[in-house]
Amino acid sequence: MTSARYPDCIKKLPSVKVPFRGVKGWVSQGKNSQVVFFEIEAGGVVSPHAHCEQFGFVLEGEMALTVDGKTRVYKKGDSYHIPEGVVHQAEFKTFVRAVDFFADPNRYQTETS
Q: Smallest Cα–Cα separation from 97: which of 64, 42, 60?
């Protein structure tokens, strides 16, 4: 599998402040929401947390996502939905590129804010 990275048009977007090691993201800011383009290194872990409603899809790689205590492996082409306030966590088996929609314009702060 070839690990593609996002093109410059994505990487020119503001970088998000992410508290998890191995996770980088760039945000497209909307009035009522955010879309974040993530690159996560193999071995990355997102610890249990909850926030606004989230919908995402995997562009590349493989991750184990646990939502409300149920774990499922997601691969290229798979999508997922996390309802508002539901505890979830993730482990990244390989390098992953994913795109996530957050139903909150303030989900992530940017590195410049």
A: 60
Sheet containing 79-82: which strands, arranged edge to edge? 23-29, 34-40, 96-102, 54-60, 79-82
* 22: CATH: 2.60.120.10
Q: How does the average pLDDT of the chain come out, rounded?
A: 94
E strand or H helix that includes residue 10:
helix 8-11
Res. 20: pLDDT tops 90: no
Provide the edge-to-edge strand list for the sheet that holds 62-67.
Answer: 45-49, 88-92, 62-67, 70-75
CA 110, CA 26: separation in Å to the nearest integer? 8
Q: Is residue 107 part of a domain?
A: no
